[in-house]
Amino acid sequence: MPPLNAKVVDTAPDEPALTPYDEQHAVTYARLLDAEADNADWREVARIVLQIDPTLDPDRARRAFDSHLARAKWVARHGYRDLLRRGWPKGE
Q: Nearest-5° angle of CA 91, CA 33, CA 44?
């Protein structure tokens, strides 16, 4: 199972296939999609889900939020197919 609070980088991947980072951040992506569905404030989501304080580092928080949410949407629409084809990584 991917970790609940995996450390995030400033910008999520944008490759046309799932990456190990995506697999590690599956829970993060699900939490971002849930927060968007609930119309949560991006600052609260950045603080809680991404563990970046938007008051201390607003540019980084916004960049990380936007890129991870975009990646979460891509995974939900397209990337999951890679996972279905090859299965969840061994040892997870």
A: 105
C-beta neighbour count of 17 within 10 angstroms:
10
Return the domain boundaries, the chain. 20-86
- Nearest Cα to 10, choosing from 64, 83, 78? 64
Burial class (CB in 10 A: 0-12, 13-18, 19+), 66: middle
How far, in Å, CA of 52 to CA of 23, rounded? 20
Structure tokens at 86: 């090859």
pTM: 0.87
Q: Per-residue pLDDT tens for 11-67?
A: 999 999 889 999 899 999 999 999 999 999 999 999 999 999 999 999 999 999 999
